[in-house]
Specification:
Blueprint: H1 10-30, H2 34-57, H3 63-86, H4 92-114, E1 120-121, H5 125-143, H6 151-185, E2 196-197
Helix pairs in contact: 1-2, 1-3, 2-5, 3-4, 3-5, 4-6, 5-6
């Protein structure tokens, strides 16, 4: 079902709740309450999957949700990776990779907007999988504080996250360049580019 309105519904409420949980999650981390931080992060992750499920299967997709959901994801993940890097719990280079990809995406959207090129916000399969792996990595890192045996999986997840994040960033870049080229070739007064943002 096509998203065409801005109404507040259950998926959007869950997304907003995820945004509101993020500052609490960060506060718990910097105060070394890793158990509570893990619970909050798990709730946020569950809400991410739940809001998408409800939106798809109960036809509750909205334009607001299309914008809010990726914003909530990026807010939560950026806060998590930056805080964990500052606390020296995860490698700083991994945070640089994760944040650089997000900056790349936002910059691309800004360029499209500046050139009056309209795109539909629809994350690709690679992007969705990358987000899921990033969430899983943060979860494993926090879980390792209580179950050291998870440390092996944690290290593997860090490298997988780095690889997928780079791959996703390159995918966005190539797709964005293609859309930009097509958009710039059109008459500015007739730009109604229906290409989907990956």
């Amino acid at each position: 079902m096509k998203a065409s309105h801005w109404s507040i519904n259950i998926p959007n409420i869950l997304t907003i709740a995820r945004i509101l949980l993020t500052p609490l999650f960060v506060i718990l981390l910097i105060r070394n309450h890793f158990g509570l931080a893990l619970i909050i992060f798990a709730l946020a992750g569950i809400s991410d999957g739940l809001d998408g499920f409800i939106a798809r299967y109960f036809n509750q997709r909205t334009v607001m949700g299309a914008y809010l959901d990726p914003i909530a994801d990026k807010f939560l993940l950026a806060a998590a990776f930056i805080t964990l890097a500052i606390l020296q719990i995860i490698p700083a280079w991994l945070t640089v990779i994760v944040i650089s990809r997000d900056i790349l995406i936002v910059s691309g959207i800004a360029i499209f907007s500046f050139n009056d090129i309209k795109v539909k916000i629809k994350p690709s399969v690679v992007s969705k999988f990358t987000t899921a792996v990033q969430l899983g990595t943060v979860f494993l890192v926090l879980l390792a504080f209580h179950f050291p045996i998870v440390g092996v999986a944690e290290q593997a997840a860090i490298w997988v996250t780095a690889g997928l994040t780079i791959l996703s960033g390159l995918h966005y870049m190539l797709a964005g360049i293609s859309i930009l080229q097509v958009g710039l070739e059109e008459d500015p007064t007739e730009r109604k580019n229906e290409n989907r943002q990956p």
